[in-house]
Amino acid sequence: MFKLNGTIFMPPVLTLIGIPGLESVQFWIGIPFCAMYIIALFGNSLILVIIKSERSLHEPMYLFLAMLGATDIALSTCILPKMLGIFWFHLPDIYFDACLFQMWLIHTFQGIESGILLAMALDRYVAICDPLRHATIFTHKLLTQIGVGVMLRAALLGAPCLILIKCRLKHFRTTVVSHSYCEHMAIVKLATEDIQVNKIYGLFVAFIILGLDIIFITISYIRIFITVFNLPQREARLKAFNTCIAHICVFLEFYLLGFFSFFTHRFGFHIPPYIHILLSNLYLLVPPLLNPIVYGVKTKQIRDRVSKIFHSKIPS
Predict the structure, then answer these.
(1) Are 83 and 180 in contact (CB under 8 A)?
(2) Contact 292/302 with Cβ under 8 angstroms?
(3) What are residue 15's DSSP bridge partners?
């Protein structure tokens, strides 16, 4: 590791300290985090198996749900193994390039999840506001195009973050990252050079992906609510609204946690660092945990299929 004027030139290895201020209890924090990860893996895998095996669920809403489940598995797997290595086995070191790759994967899967939530909102919008055209609009070809487009958007917009760090930032004041995973701003703030371009591009990506998605999702649900409340029969209103409840819960959980974490990280200067890190961790771990539970409880077809699987295993 080459040092120049008290700075470190292109460090090959970074050190993730976990949750600053809570190092003495990180072992115990790892236990609920591990439990959340196991439940998320099991729940999302079960959703994927059910949707794959049940032909009646090969519809846009459930196929989007399968995409969401696969994304949740990938997102939580990007974070938890290394985090538990820090908490339980005192393995804080990570190669600089591996850290950048983890950062890109995390932000890519976050962007994919946001795009899928937007696609699910548009699916509900067409299904409720223009039901006769739903089958002709949301074809399997369109679903494939949406899936590829969502992945490419997130991956391509996230890639310049790596390039800007790798090409612009050469000198670092320390190799110690005050975080439990490789987060963009946590790495950028280690540099001694001007990081304004990195910060601006990070905000630009956050607005282009999360900002625009939440605007279009909100507009879709405003239109949905207007259509639902104009239905003449109370039963029809309840049935239409019930198809949206699960998605609304997932939407609120993902974006409220995301924006709270985002704004406390950038503007909550008086909030202790461990609060920032815990919020960031919960933002990435809670949605994969809750999404299959919410959809399993609120979606009758999935709930019935889960009951059938477990009841068939109980001997009569």
Answers:
(1) yes
(2) no
(3) 93, 176
pLDDT of residue 168: 92
Instruction: For residues 240 and 220, give the distance between their C-alpha atoms in angstroms, rounded to a whole number.
Output: 14
Cβ burial of 170 (10 Å; 0-12, 13-18, 19+) is: middle
Cβ neighbourhood burial of 224 (10 Å; 0-12, 13-18, 19+): buried
Over residues 17-51, the pLDDT tens digits come to: 999 989 899 999 999 999 999 999 999 999 999 99
DSSP secondary-structure letter at 32?
A: H
Instruction: Give the DSSP H or E segment for 89.
Output: helix 60-89
Read off the pTM. 0.93
Amino acid identity, residue 298? K
Buried/exposed 44-54: b ≥16 CB within 10 Å, e otherwise: bebbbebbeee
Q: Which value, in Å, is the radius of gyration of the alpha carbons in the chain?
A: 22
The gap from C-alpha 48 to its chain's centroid, in whole angstroms, comes to 17
DSSP annotation string for 139-195: -HHHHHHHHHHHHHHHHHHHHHHHHHHHHH--EES-SEESSSS--HHHHHTTBSS--
Determine the straight-line distance between the first and last CA of the chain, rounded to whole angstroms: 66
CA dihedral 27, 30, 35, 40 (to 10 degrees): -170
Strand partners, 16: 177
CA distance 34 to 3: 38
E strand segments, the chain: 2-4, 7-9, 13-16, 93-95, 171-172, 176-177
CA distance 300 to 97: 45
Token pair listed for 43: 């729940």
For CA atoms 85, 86, 92, 96, give the dihedral sign.
positive
Q: Would you state the structure tokens that stand for residue 259, as one six-digit string?
A: 């924006």
Q: How distant is the alpha carbon of residue 261 from its chain centre?
A: 12
For tokens 């009841």, what's the residue?
Answer: 311
